[in-house]
């Protein structure tokens, strides 16, 4: 799925197509020791757990947390698609630095594994983390329209 998104998505859609497919719960469940040793990752795990159980969070990411909570209360069976389409933007709009940091790491790994910067539709001369910053800013700007 990731390879198809990277190679077939136009530059202006590749970021959204990728991040709206991230399943952070699945990613978090697989990171184990690395996550427990990373304060940003640890907070993200606690946040996801609290939200899933209907508990209060510490509120470090208020817009993101409120949006996810609303998705959970509206229709729990559609929570992942709701979060992807309505809430992901708050990971990149300055509301939640820990989320953006984790996403940048994931994106950078995907970028390197799939040589994103050299893809013909992307053609980026900089680094993967810089591509992330540029594309995430564009993603937020489009979502805010």
UniProtKB/TrEMBL annotation:
Among Pfam families, the record links this protein to: DUF5332
What name has this protein been given in UniProt?
CRE-DCT-5 protein
Determine the domain of life of the protein's source.
Eukaryota
Task: Tell me the gene name.
Answer: Cre-dct-5
| One GO BP annotation of this record | defense response to Gram-negative bacterium
């Amino acid at each position: 799925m990731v390879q198809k998104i990277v190679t077939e998505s136009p530059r202006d859609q590749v970021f959204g197509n990728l991040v709206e497919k991230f399943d952070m719960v699945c990613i978090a469940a697989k990171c184990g020791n690395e996550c427990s040793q990373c304060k940003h990752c640890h907070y993200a795990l606690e946040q996801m757990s609290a939200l899933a159980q209907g508990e209060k969070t510490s509120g470090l990411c208020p817009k993101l947390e409120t949006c996810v909570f609303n998705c959970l209360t509206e229709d729990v069976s559609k929570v992942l698609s709701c979060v992807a389409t309505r809430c992901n933007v708050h990971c990149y709009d300055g509301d939640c630095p820990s989320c953006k940091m984790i996403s940048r790491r994931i994106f950078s790994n995907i970028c390197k594994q799939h040589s994103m910067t050299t893809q013909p539709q992307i053609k980026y001369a900089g680094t993967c983390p810089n591509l992330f910053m540029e594309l995430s800013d564009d993603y937020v700007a489009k979502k805010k329209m």
